[in-house]
Amino acid sequence: MLYLYEKQNVDSFFSRLDAGIDPDSSTIEKNVSDILKNVQTCGDEALCRYAEKFDGVIMNREMLKSTAEQMKAAEEAFREIEPVLKQAAGRIRRYHERHLPGSWIERENGGSRLGVRIRPLDRVGCYVPGGRAPYPSSLFMTVIPAQVAGVKDIIVVSPPNAGGVVSPAVLNAARILGIERVYCAGGAQAVGALAFGTESIPRVDKVVGPGNAYVTEAKRQVYGRVDIDMLAGPSEVVILADETADPDFVAADLLAQAEHDPRSGSVLVTWSRDLASAVQESVNSQAACLSRLDIIRVSLKERGGILLSRNPQQAEDWVNRLAPEHLGLHVKDPWERLERIDHAGAVFLGSWSPETVGDYWAGPSHVLPTQGTARFASPLGTEDFMKRSSLIFFSRKDLEKDADAIIQLAKMEGLDAHANAVRCRVCKENGGSNPAGSPEITGLSGAATGG
Fold first, then answer.
1. Of 195, 322, 345, 417, which one's alpha carbon is 20 to 30 angstroms from that of 112?
2. DSSP secondary structure code for residue 213 in this structure
3. Number of other CB atoms surrounding residue 18 within 10 Å
4. How far is CA 340 from CA 180, 242, 267, 336, 344, in A?
5. Which residue in the list 316, 325, 330, 355 is annotated as catalytic?
6. pLDDT confidence of 441, banded at 50, 70, 90?
7. If 0-12 CB within 10 Å is exposed, 13-18 middle and 19+ buried, where does residue 291 land?
8. Looking at the whole model, is its pTM more than 0.85?
9. Residue 25 — pLDDT band, cuts 50, 70, 90?
């Protein structure tokens, strides 16, 4: 079920990854563009039409916003597990409270002050997927960092279930966090509603949360009108393991990823042939007992594999090339090995740190960069719900001291008005007149290149 790649075959594995996972991306792009235009033009009516077309449920405008009665029913349905949900939410909140960025101001010798002012976004939209299964954990992992950041207005959208309502598991998670505005809309149309606003759903400043290829493409197309967190693809895990690893643990972690989606990636990187063989056997035996075997088979065939390296250094190089969303280090000394890993969204160190812990319980958000984007992207965090303003206060003393240098830079770029904005202040304060017509200013030439 899990193919072994070694020597030249490893190149074919990477080539397959580099080819991408959406061969029909042009079709998706066109379909999403049409959906977004319809939502922008028709608002709630378009959302109801697409709910019938894509989700198979008949809806009207009044059904878009989840009701207090639905929230109450969700509370009753999940009353037994509520203590566990609240404990998980508390862990997530405490983690994000630890690394809140702060404003600062620094005073210079001449009295000038420079700094950064950080403020939360006004309104954000959290997309909670619900296609193959409801994901209340994704609501926790997107909403809680936004709350910790200080966002006052948080909107949640999630696809309808067969009954035409948001999954009770998702509604209950929203209730626990005090989120009252949960809308029954999914797919690209939900992203469009958040970006453009409809009669029922207000426009937001940023859209966050994982979704399928249509959701991701919609986020790509609305970026610029609103901000987004990232363009996430199917989930993935890479396990780096040595001869000390437990093959059953490794196999279990690979299968936990593979059951997500037929396009999920599950890869073992090792230099131990004995371990590779043992993991293959364990994958086959464990998978036979799992309820999502059909999804797992496709996932492991299309996006899974075991990469057998010559040595540890080559294995580490492959891991950095993959830059995985999740990385498990099943090695003798995971902390020492971590020093040579540069690219990963979340790192699970040691055999007792399964990815499942990160999905639900540990604290960091499980919204992570995928498809190699961990080379330059980071997990969702409080800073993603905040924005910075640069603060610049120059004293008269410092402007007079630095005026000549600033004017020289403006001259270099041919921007005489820039130079004049400094010179007029210095000359006026020293008893002179506005020097805009002086030879030094009028002699400047060149096209403006920026402000």
1. 417
2. H
3. 8
4. 45, 15, 19, 8, 11
5. 325
6. very low
7. exposed
8. yes
9. confident
**Chain segment 109-124, per-residue pLDDT in tens:** 999 999 999 999 999 9
User: Please, are residues 326 and 345 in contact by the beta-carbon 8 Å criterion?
Assistant: yes
275-292 average pLDDT score: 97
Residues 358/346, Cβ–Cβ less than 8 Å: yes
Q: How far apart are CA 221 and CA 317, in angstroms?
A: 34
Strands 386-393 and 346-349 come out as: unpaired
**What percentage of the chain reaches a pLDDT higher than 90?**
88
* Number of neighbouring beta carbons within 10 Å of residue 297: 15
Tokens of 288: 């036979």
CB 74 within 8 A of CB 179: no
Model pLDDT for residues 349-366, shown as the tens digit of each residue: 999 999 999 999 999 999
pLDDT tens for 364-374 read 999 999 999 99
- Which structural domains are found in the chain, ordered by start? 4-21+234-362 (3.40.50.1980), 25-232 (3.40.50.1980), 394-442 (no CATH)
User: pLDDT tens digit string along 374-432?
Assistant: 999 999 999 999 999 999 999 999 999 999 999 999 999 999 999 999 999 999 867 66
Contact partners, residue 127, CB within 8 Å, separation at least 6 = 142, 157, 158, 190, 191, 194, 207, 208, 209, 210, 211, 215
Catalytic site includes residue 325: yes
Residue 299 pLDDT exceeds 50: yes
- What is the number of residues in the chain? 451
Residue by residue, DSSP assigns 398-413 as HHHHHHHHHHHHHHHT
Nearest CA to 367 among 172, 155, 98, 126? 126
Long-range contacts of 276-280 (CB under 8 A, 24+ apart): 276/4, 276/306, 276/308, 278/247, 279/2, 279/241, 279/247, 279/250, 279/251, 279/254, 279/306, 280/1, 280/2, 280/4, 280/306
SS3 content of the chain, % helix, strand, coil (to 5): 45, 15, 35
Q: Is residue 47 helix, strand or coil?
A: helix
Instruction: Write the CB contacts of 256 (distance below 8 Å, at least 6 apart in sequence).
Output: 237, 354, 355, 356
Interior/surface letters 206-233, b for 16+ CB within 10 angstroms, e for the rest? bbbbbbbbbbbbbbebbeeebbbbbbbb
Residue tagged active-site, from 96, 260, 326, 343: 326
